[in-house]
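Q: What would this chain look like folded?
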Amino acid sequence: MGTGGVGGFFGAKLAKAGEEVTLIARGGHLSAIRLRGLQVKSAREGEFTVNAPATDDPSSIGPVDLVLFSVKSYDTEAAARRILPLISRDTVVLTVQNGVDNAEKIARITGPEHVLAGSAYVFSIIEAPGVIRHTSGGQIV
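A: My prediction, written as structure tokens:
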């Protein structure tokens, strides 16, 4: 949920590794991903493009094993409500957001049994619609 610098980088890496990934994005970024795929320009891993499905409608996906939740903090509650159709009994929502209370905000909406708080050690940005520029890091703890 969120295909910006962080979500786009880790989502692309998962897709490149062969995992089934659906990217949730919006606007021009979504349009570019649908048209050309999601391109990563990485200082460490080179350049690659993944052609994973992309949508702005989480309800079109159905239940999933993992939601990598990486939206801006001010969008947390609205985005958490939007991912409810993705949640099944065993779904994990891994939040890798900046902020101190995002996991609690998500848990109030999805149920605390689904939420896992993590930290992403990565520097990556949306360089252009459909393009993630990664300069350092690349770990989730």
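The chain has a mean pLDDT of 97.
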